[in-house]
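ligand=MRU
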Amino acid sequence: LIINNNLFEINIICMKINGIDYCSLWEENSKKLAINAIDQRLLPFELKIAKITTYREMILAIKDMAIRGAPLIGIAGAYAIVLAIQELIQNKQTLDRIIEIIPEIRMARPTAVNLMWAVDRVVSKIDFSLSIEKNFERVLLMARQIYYDEVNSCKQIAKFGFELIENLYSKYRRPINILTHCNAGWLATVDWGTALAPIYYAHREGIPLLIWVDETRPRNQGSKLTSFELLGEGIPHTIIADNTGGLLMQMGKVDAVIVGADRVTGEGDVCNKVGTYLKALAAKEHNVPFWVALPTSTIDWEIPDFRKIPIEERSPDEIDFLEGIHQDKICKVRITPIGSNSLNYAFDITPNQFVSKYITEKGVFDSIQDLRKST
Ligand code: MRU
């Protein structure tokens, strides 16, 4: 198998870690397809690149959240199909086997619709009347197209969202205070991010910012990943306990909230990291704009009602144990009594009436219906 790496030119800006350009996931430059990805479980303590060569390794990376964030797991799922076909070729198996593999990849995580969306797009390129080698080429091209499109979408989100921040700056003429939840930056996409993209753009345009970073229990994507990203870009930020946002809004210390999304219904109801809903409630009470940044790949046009969105329930261990670093070693400590129950829903839903603006690659909209009409 020869992979033609010139099939697609991918132009990535890349975000900074200690002054060096990085993105979250990329193809290794080799004859056989392999995917390199930052292992997000180890950040901010260790920067390790995982090399993924089989579809099962990719599924595990998604389930275990070495690779995470809605757009990124979509891209990872797309490449998992490509890896699976590569393995079938190597093992001299027939293409029919892919039929059993597809649902395994699609359901690696249940909530972010980007995963199913990207897998379905790649699978639509499979044509059983063609050779398996030809199919490999076709799915690889589609995975690269999805990768490229998501990078571009995030860049557009950066530009459109920047205009909202710029408006606030024109009004207040002082540093703009923005609160964000979870990690919706370049680690969760490939480049730029969704919720953090307008923040990066505004910072590069010279608008002074202060970002309130929700720690985002139980996995602490805010305090571990968002802070790590913002440090890399040199953006002033302060990590807060998840429950602090309401107080800050009451004190007038939040000018806007920006979050990402894992699945948005056609009605505009937003499923995102658990805790988002409480921030939206507080924002409404205090007249703080609540913006949701998303590529349109995050919209589930099919789902009739937000109550039908599958909410992932993860291991109680994520509540019962905290992970940190001690004497240069990453370690886990138990923080709950043995015998108590813990419940770990990973996402919640913010109904559309709490969302002030949807920032997408197609522009900024008051409602998802407006977005639909415009396209
Ligand atoms: O469980 P995670 O870390 O994959 O959840 C991620 C989020 O909830 C993000 O806010 C969302 O995917 C938007 S990503 C740009």
